[in-house]
Amino acid sequence: MKRVFLIVLDSVGIGEMPDAARYGDEGSNTLKAASKSPYFSMENMRKLGYFNIDGVEIGAKEPHPGGSYARMTEKSQGKDTTIGHWEIAGVISEKPLPVYPEGFPDEIIKEFSEKTGRGVLCNRPYSGTEVIKDYGEEHMRTGDLIVYTSADSVFQIAAHEDVVPVEQLYEYCRIARKILTGEHNVGRVIARPFIGTPGNFTRTSRRHDFSVEPPKETMLDQLKESGYEVLAVGKIYDIFAGRGITEFVRTTDNGDGISKLLQYMDREFEGLCFVNLVDYDMLYGHRNDVDGYAKALTFFDGKLPEILEKMKEEDILMITADHGCDPSTPSTDHSREYTPLVLYGKKIKAGINFHTRDTFADIGATVLEYFGIKPRISGKGLLDNGTMLL
């Protein structure tokens, strides 16, 4: 019974791509930045070959790595979560999703306000924690919605749970999703509920993303069509707008995500378990918290032996990322970086360096190749028609 466990360490890039300067990301290297923290330790990942990847210049190389590995190039135009995951699943985006460095146009805000019956506060790029600090009290007094964006293609709506019940906030997001089409077809509309009192506001775990559907067929669609299970952990369901997924669970943090992964590993199924661990990006990269980022990587590394222990004879583990988010640079935005790929399984030949690949889509093609499905997506499989299999 074949199973693939594909884990995305959200934002764990491994160094600037050649076009990084065009995105304002020259010099970014997320993994290297985190490795400089005294809290960083990834010895288990090192043993699989993580530090052997081309361009990775941290720690000692593993002379006999347990896995094979590659450096992945983002071929899509962009550097956000949606486009990164879509490319992993075989969709290359030739133009970036729209972003709004000056805030959303008046006509969008006017239509949104008319259809929700509420006013709008902010409407510009903002830190998610700072925006509720600066606008939360006014929101509670007026009932107006806090609308903001970031360097990503996102329309975010923050509201206090005592002012706007969460289900109502979700409905406002659905309204925004219907408005944001055509040239304003943003990647995600995000509900950002929060609680607390002025000066002590905190965001809750009931965030919800309303994503645009991938514009083309994905690896998930092909797996589902072929009768395989596609199990989604964390924000995977939201990123793909539920398409191609047979079952999903949401998560509260990385620890919960790993726990849900381990539960799926105990289950009998044939197909893909696709996991996103978002804390690196959301809690540490965007907040320039190098030590927090390092601790989160160390935590994952500490759980890796438990993951490997649960792997069965025909299981494959793939660990990658979707973009960078260097916590040591002045920017708090995503960074245009190469991403890592580590490939491990009892049936997979170890110690193979696939060097630098042309696209993240090689991951999706590899998954389909393993299940004997001819890819109708972009990318080239790494298994080379089975010659990589023992």
Automatic annotation (TrEMBL):
Binding of Mn(2+) 2, residues: 281, 286, 334
Domain Metalloenzyme, first and last residues per copy: 2-374
Pfam families on file: Metalloenzyme (PF01676)
Cofactor: Mn(2+)
The record's free-text note on cofactor binding: Binds 2 manganese ions.
Enzyme Commission number(s): 5.4.2.7
PANTHER family, alphabetized: PHOSPHOPENTOMUTASE (PTHR21110)
Name of the featured protein: Phosphopentomutase
Origin species: Candidatus Eubacterium avistercoris
Lineage: Bacteria, Bacillati, Bacillota, Clostridia, Eubacteriales
Annotated gene: deoB
